[in-house]
Write a structure and sequence with these properties.
The complex is a heterotrimer of chains A (about 210), B (about 250) and C (about 280). Chain A has about 210 residues and is mainly alpha-helical. Chain A is about 85% helix and about 0% strand. Chain A has a single domain, classed as Methane Monooxygenase Hydroxylase, Chain G, domain 1. Classes of the chains: A mainly alpha (about 210), B alpha/beta (about 250), C mainly alpha (about 280).
Amino acid sequence: MSRIIDSSLEGLLSTLNKMGGMAYNAVSKALLECLDGREAYNEIREISDHLLTMTDYVEDRTFELIVRYQPVASDLRRIKSYMKIAYDLARFGRYALDISFTNKKLERLKNCEEWIKIYIKEMGEKVLDMIKLSIEALKNSDAQLARNISEKENEVDKMHLEFLDKLIKSETTTRCAISSILIIRYLERIADHAAYICESIIYIATGQKEVLR
Amino acid sequence: MVKFDIQNLNAWFGSKHVLKNINMKIEENTVTAIIGPSGCGKTTLLRCLNRMHELIPGARVSGKVIFNGVNIYDNSVDPVMVRRKIGMVFQKPNPFPMMSIYDNVAVGLKLNGIRDKRVLDAAVKRSLELANLWDEVKDELNKSGASLSGGQQQRLCIARALAVEPEVLLMDEPCSALDPISTAKIEELIRKLAKDYTIIIVTHNVQQAARVSDFTAFLYLGELIEYGPTRQIFENPQNELTERYLTGKFG
Amino acid sequence: MDYHKLRFIKDRLMQSLVYLSLILAFIPLFSIIYEVFVRGVSAINVDFFIKPTPTVGEVGGGVANAIQGTLITIGLASLIGVPVGLMSGIFLSEYSESRLSMIIRFLHDVLGGVPSIVIGVFAYALITRSIGFSVTAAAFALAVIMIPIVTRTTEEALKLVPMSIREAAIALGIPRWKVTITIALSSARKAIITGILLSIARIAGESAPILVSMGFWRWWFAGLNRPVANLALNIFIFAMSPFKNWVTLAWGSALILIIMVLIISVLARITLTRG
């Protein structure tokens, strides 16, 4: 049975979907920028700003739904989670922008060791996968799918620590060191937020608060 | 402390089985809301708690309702005494028509033999104060009960029920005939009374249950589907049926 | 256009017919009142109210003793009829589904249809035969006429008390019988009193049963085992007599009787609407 609130909930979901696509785009572009120099700061900036505006919109809409419908049970959990997820998606954009800014100021890993670039590439791919996974799980509030992110999150954490170890032992330049640490750090944060999104999805579906990190 | 221990309660209207094996425990000094779609048996359940269900011709009850350690359906128990300890307020305010406000509140005591005017005066004042009605009517206690507004009449009925000093107050959709402001006043009153009384309220308005109760019981087709703390029922109901009812997915 | 006019004419026609019927219906009432008033008013003087029935040939006189007698008779009848009627009415409304109630209701309906003269004969057989023509016998007959009326009105009035009122009282822990006697009865007060008043108005005008069970009496109250004078009966006796002053007194009595009944009916109406 279709209820009045259903169309609003579907609308919100589709907005989040759009935001997800944009966020994926931004992070993707930022990574490409690192690895093969395609300058994209302004584009990424635009996407990030847009994401922030959309977060405000989602927050506003969820508030309206609460005012109008006094939702309870799964509806209430969904609305609360949508607000959080919008924020998490906007963070993706923000971190993508931070990566791009780092690239701009610190010359995009020019002349840095290969192994650094490889780490960033691999971690970047994993992180993009996680973003994709979280958006996919969101579509149907699929808790099972959402739990899969736990594994990936662990891998990213491992890579992060490994990288730090290797960096300390290496003789790389200060510029490369700072630049790569920052980028790896931002990627790690993106992974965290993707995990948060999946935790929210599990909360919508089951009402339980599971930790996936 | 458990105020009501309901064990395997079943109720019938003739051959129609309207309550099926209800088992629940109600704590002292809490507000418990009973929700569910029309015809699910919520009012019947309420009326089984003060032995009013059996007054209907053809009605039957089986099972136990243990109140203060005693099964109220035991043969040795006088239903009249049960009803003095367990008061009831009805859906449509029903003050006694030919009586003044004072008489309405005092009637329960008077008919139980209390004649002393000072005792009656004090009891009337106390009950009306408890029901948040004293200030509005203290200068016109001799006015007819029917001259009050709907919300005031309902509070008068609450005062009348409280005057005989029950331990429990059963409320059958007390606000459904009232406007939103009167409803809010009664809900406020319920929260205030919860400190000293055990209150069980039947409501078809789930929002009201969420606002006012500590525990919520969901009934469907005579069965108790789910019963738990209100916060939990409304945030994360365990039963699929409860979830569907609360979110309006019922036909 | 035509249909509109036709309908208008029909409407006016019906209206006029209805008003005409109304007037026709009132003509008997007003003519009675007029006649009685005009002929009876000449009998009204101070004597009328303080002098007893005049003897044959005596000039003047009044109906003071008849007024006294009528009041006593009605009073006695009510003393028996009202409590019995009330209690029957309460019983019938409380146990209305039981077989006994069905039987009682049926009997009351039958009793209500019995001609008052027959009831008078019954009172004669039961009471007059043992203690003689007396006000007791008359009061008994009138009580028997009253009872079905009071029973029916009481039962109906109690039935009208909404279940919600009774439930509220029961929920307070008041035993059922108390609920009926106090709450229900007081809620139905107006209707019950109206019923009682109307039954009194009814028996005030009875003459046949009084004639049979008590007979004509010219003097003041003389004991429960003797008759008393009665206004309605007096009208019967005096109107057919050859004495002019008796005839005048008859008209006067008729006037008083009508006024009495009128007052009771008005009281009943007031009770019903303003209680």
